[in-house]
Design a protein that fits this description.
It is globular, with a radius of gyration of 18 Å. The protein is of the alpha+beta class and 311 residues long. The protein has four helices and 19 strands. α1 runs parallel beside α2 and α3 runs parallel beside α4. β4 and β5 form a beta hairpin. The strands form five sheets. Strands 4-5-6-11-7-10 form a six-stranded mixed beta sheet, with helices on one face. 22% of the residues lie in helices and 32% in strands. It has a single domain, classed as 2-Layer Sandwich (60s Ribosomal Protein L30, Chain: A), CATH 3.30.1330.40. It binds 3-(2-carboxyethyl)benzoic acid. 3-(2-carboxyethyl)benzoic acid (3EB) binds next to β10 and β14.
């Protein structure tokens, strides 16, 4: 076991203390109040702590988790969230450089009030500024070779980041239906988001694919505002396009099908669960693992966001 993310009310239950654990206050919308996302790989595994990052790694892959309270960072010209985000990523990159897992593969970002205005700007934009600054400071590309990611608003808690990193760089995959997020126009904020639509590790056997949080965005615009059914449909058109791209990149006929992946679905309004679930099951079938949680999506007009992984 590499690491765990506990979604929902955070009751850790029987989590072994050696395993890095992220607690994410995204209420679970059906089933138990608390769910564990468990990341596994082949051993032997080594555990450690560097600064605030708890990590566990195999020969090829490292899982890490950290939280940074916004009160614990200095307030300068920039916002506290921007500082917390930048501090978190600087610690992560320091660890990855030191341990030799240079390639950030997948990053999950969570913090409360993502759509709130504070210190003169929207908190998602402050997060983007801090993230991009840390990538630059760490000597990393902010376009092209960037990880798969998501960024969601929680019901509370500190800024929390958990991630997977690799010794051998994965392949970044974009969606021909969407503008690359790192090239979004300025209307979405002065500093672009730093993520790819998907990331594919061909160094693992079988290859591992992460599809980033995917929403109802075509080009750079939100489609179907106020229509959660149409947003769910559009999100699957985007995921299908990303999977087709992944299939083109993968060697020797590896193909990724909607029904073969595991999903986490972020629903802004709990009352939309039934409509979203029906749309999701139409595309992924009855067998694919799907967890539905409540979270705020990074644009106020987005009602649903869907992430996937497989391999
Ligand atoms: C989007 O496509 C929707 O900032 O890391 C999706 C995945 C979104 C990742 C991020 C944001 C992020 O722009 C939002």
């Amino acid at each position: 076991m590499l690491g765990i993310a506990i979604l929902g009310d955070g009751d850790a239950g029987l989590v072994p203390p050696a395993i890095p654990t992220a607690r994410i206050a995204t209420p679970v919308l059906e089933g138990p109040q608390s769910m564990c996302e468990i990341w596994r790989t082949r051993g032997p595994l080594e555990t450690g702590l560097r600064g605030r990052v708890r990590y566990r790694c195999s020969d090829t892959m490292l899982f890490g988790a950290l939280e940074i309270g916004e009160g614990a960072v200095p307030v300068g010209g920039a916002s506290r969230l921007q500082h917390a985000t930048e501090a978190a990523y600087r610690e992560v990159f320091g660890l990855l450089d030191e341990k030799g897992y240079r390639a950030l593969f997948r990053a999950w970002n969570y913090f409360p009030g993502i759509n709130d205005e504070a210190d003169g700007s929207e908190r998602y934009r402050q997060f983007n500024a801090g993230r991009q600054e840390a990538f630059r400071a760490g000597g990393r590309s902010t376009t092209g070779h960037v990880p798969a990611a998501c960024a969601l608003g929680t019901a509370g808690g500190p800024f929390t980041l958990y991630f997977l990193a690799l010794r051998e760089a994965p392949v970044a995959i974009e969606n021909p239906r969407q503008v690359c997020a790192y090239h979004y126009p300025q209307q979405y904020g002065p500093r672009s988001p730093t993520f790819a639509r998907a990331s594919l590790a061909l160094s693992e056997a079988p290859p591992v694919l992460f599809v980033s949080g995917t929403a109802s965005i075509v080009g750079h615009r939100t489609l179907h505002p106020a229509d959660v059914v149409a947003q769910t449909e559009e999100s699957f058109r985007n995921i299908a396009a990303v999977l087709a791209e992944a299939g083109r990149v993968a060697p020797d006929g590896t193909r990724f099908g909607l029904r073969d992946l595991s999903y986490k679905v972020y629903v802004r309004h709990p009352a939309d669960l039934g409509a979203v679930r029906a749309g999701v099951r139409e595309h992924v079938g009855s067998e694919a693992p799907v967890v539905f949680v409540q979270a705020d999506v990074c644009r106020a007009d987005l009602l649903v966001e869907i992430e996937a992984s497989g391999g």
